Amino acid sequence: LMRSMSGRNSQAFTFTKSPAKKYVSTDKKVTFKDVAGVEEAQQELADIVSYLKDPTVFADTGARMPKGLLLVGPPGTGKTLLARAVAGEAGVPFFFISGSDFVELFVGVGAARVRDLFTQAKSSAPAILFIDEIDAVGRHRGAGLGGGHDEREQTLNQILVEMDGFDAKTDVIVIAATNRPDILDKALLRPGRFDKKISVDPPDLKGRSEILKIHMRGKPIDPEVDVQLLGRRTPGFVGADLENLINEAAILSARKKKKMIGMTELEEAIDRVLAGPAKRSRIISEREKKILAYHELGHAVVGLILPKAFPVHKVTIIPRGTSTLGFTESLPLEDRYLITKSELLDNMSQALGGRAAEDLVFGEITTGAASDLERASAMARSMVTQFGMSERLGPIAWGKEEDEVFLGRELTRMKNYSEEIASEIDSEVKTIVLTCYEKAKRVLSDHRKKLDEAADYLLQKETISGRELAEILELKAGNYYKDDLEAVDIAPGANASDPEITKKLE
Question: What is the pTM of this model?
Answer without folding.
Answer: 0.75
